Amino acid sequence: MMFKEFILLSLLGFLFSFFILKDKERDYLWFTRIFIVFMTLLIIPDILSALRGTFLEYIYFKDFGFLLKFRLDQASLVFLWLNLLLYLFLYFFVQSEFKGHLFNGLMLMLFCVNNLFFLSGDTLTFFIFWEAMLIPATLLLWYFSKESPKRIALEFLIYNFGFSIFLLLGILFLYKYNQSFEFKLGGLYEAKWIASLLYIGIMVKTPVFPLHGWLLNTYYNLPSPVTAIFSGILSKYALYGFYRFYQKASLSLEIFLFLTIFSALYAGYIAWSNRDIKKIFTYMSMSHLNVMLAGSLAMLPYVSPFLIVPFGLFHGFLAFALFIYVYHMERTSGNLFIDEYGALTLTKPIFTFFFTTFLLVLSGFPLFGYFYLEFAMLSFVFKFSLLFGFLLSLGIAVNLIYKAIVFYRLIFIKKEGPGSKTLKDLSPSYTFFSVLIFLIVIFLTFYLSWLIKFLQGGGV
Questions:
Q1: What is the pLDDT of residues 301-343, one digit of tens each?
Q2: Among 242, 430, 407, 225, which Cα is nearest to 327's?
Q3: What is the domain partition of the chain in residue ranges?
Q4: Measured between alpha carbons, how far is 34 from 91 in angstroms, rounded to an integer?
Q5: Which of 265, 251, 260, 370 is nearest to 302 (CA)?
Q6: 267 phi/psi in degrees, rounded to 5
Q7: Following CA atoms 164, 166, 167, 173 in sequence, which dihedral angle do they give, to the nearest 10 degrees?
Q8: pTM of the model
Q9: CA 82 – CA 347 distance, rounded (Å)
Q10: Tens digit of pLDDT for each residue in 183-195?
């Protein structure tokens, strides 16, 4: 078993990335690729063991009443594998012009932090790497934002670092009452107000209205391959945190449920009112994540919110793919306004097939597992409250409207626009990447029942 070595190499990779940032003579693309492949191969035996129910722990500090550890179990396995695969896709199939030492150093740092965060086995380790993510994320914004990079980087940092104080207070109160840094929220008399502190910290990472002010500037101004990583992986920090903290907490947080449902509706409306594809997908991602959190909050009085893990897995792959297609559109046509496209079915059939298929899956098409997860989440909200269920249904309906607008422009408009004329069909590498994502979605759909049983078989 190489679990301990995987953790150690992730820490060393994080530290080595600082050296890469200083070395201006090399771009370290080759090193980053080799490192990602090696780390993936290194952890595969442990992942296979975890699939068979053998969960791993590594205690790295045990003194003064503290027990700090890393843990590979059901949820960490899912999100760790998501991080590994998306980085492999990015570095081997996406034609990126960002090959300098800064880009690869910061992306390597982010890769390593993601590994360590999703393997956090206690609340303090969780918080350390929750905050450590801000280092590469903020620097990526500082150096690579298209507009006002310093302002956008500081905005991101202030939102995410500032509101983390609520998460930290929740963790410290948990330690006070549990006398440990274990994820034990259930059974406490004070659980509801501690859960409220924790959820405010989670809200800013999702984001949930009104803590979403950093989202558009961050997603829109980053290079689209980096936005794909933010949407595919970093947005899962909040989902992973929710699953960990609320695993055994039978709570009812009505005000937060209302805010989350309103946030899904609000984000859907903003996406509907936009014509820029990257802005549409930015708010689409926010809306879908809020639907997941709303359903998970509604599950708490009845069962563990285990559905948030496979839901997040589907979203991670699909959101990543759609932002990669945005990057393809930027590179080949330089046009992101949906009104400038048309007749793509005949002229760009490969791009149109995968682009519309993945959008169709996110729309809740019944043949795919995403539909059943969304339906289950909506059912729990209706079970909790008919009013909340109606509001969430309205939010999902708004989501369908703006997706229908995208479908209409790409498929049913027969006249080519300026964007259609300059857009190129997918290259062989992008096509192969798209086929892999499609096969993963099919695989997750067929084995959704097994994945749910696997997640219900244990936890933190």
A1: 888 888 899 999 999 999 999 999 999 988 888 888 888 887 7
A2: 225
A3: 3-456
A4: 10
A5: 251
A6: -65, -40
A7: 150
A8: 0.92
A9: 33
A10: 887 666 567 888 8
